[in-house]
Amino acid sequence: MNCIIASTSTVHGSDYLGYFPNALTELFKGVNEIIFIPYARPGGITHDEYTQKAQDGLRFLNIKVVGIHQKEDPKTAIKNAEAIFTGGGNTFLLVSQLYQNDVMQILSEKVKNGCAYLGTSAGSNICGKTMNTTNDMPIVHPPSFKTLGLFPFNINPHYLDPDPSSTHKGETRETRIKEFQNLQKTPVVGLREGSWLRIKNNDILLKGDLKARVFIPQRDPIEVEPNHSFKDLS
């Protein structure tokens, strides 16, 4: 596979997709057209506007970005794609739309067969076994929580550490993930903002400047450094 699975599309102080240009240049080398999947946006911006935002963010690559909704048939668009980018938004809506358009399985097979893939936020959530470790509200009810299954663990994008100075007494992100693992024996990688997974040459490496927090069922969470390999995490 040839993927970038990013925690977010934008970090503080940068433009949209502006914080890892070298990684994107490598990922999309030799590509003439990227199919953009805007299904995660629940409102406030149209699919056309979201596709234009993706085009603007990737303009430095001089590659054409086309929304999947602008193609005559979504399944054919995925099958013929040189490269694919799934943007962020609401994961429940994204998964629902992927199933509604009957492209979840086709997308999984396409990426597993080597098509360059970029996912940010919700577009990263769908890369694991399930979408169950999303931070999003269930604004729609998808037919299944099963997703692309590119690797045998889940992602938690936008992972936040507890603020020791906060007086908030609600559950932390770590608490929520542990609740998930009380019922599901799936490892979870907490990706902090500005971090991404690079899948290439049969390996899955943590990239960016920050550590990731890894949750393994029935064990204490661990912190791993950039360039850590997740290829054996299952």
Secondary-structure map:
Layout: E1 3-6, H1 21-27, E2 33-37, H2 47-57, E3 64-67, H3 74-79, E4 83-86, H4 91-100, H5 104-112, E5 116-120, H6 122-125, E6 154-156, H7 173-183, E7 188-190, E8 196-200, E9 203-207, E10 212-215, E11 222-224
Parallel strand pairs: 1-5, 2-3, 2-4, 4-5, 6-7
Antiparallel strand pairs: 1-8, 7-10, 8-9, 10-11
How would you portray this structure in words?
The protein is an alpha/beta fold. The protein has a single domain, classed as Class I glutamine amidotransferase (GATase) domain (Rossmann fold, 3-Layer(aba) Sandwich). Helices cover 25% and strands 19% of the residues. It contains seven helices and eleven strands. A seven-stranded mixed sheet has the order 3-2-4-5-1-8-9. Helix 7 links the parallel strand 6 (154-156) and strand 7. It is globular and about 50 Å long. 43% of the residues are buried.
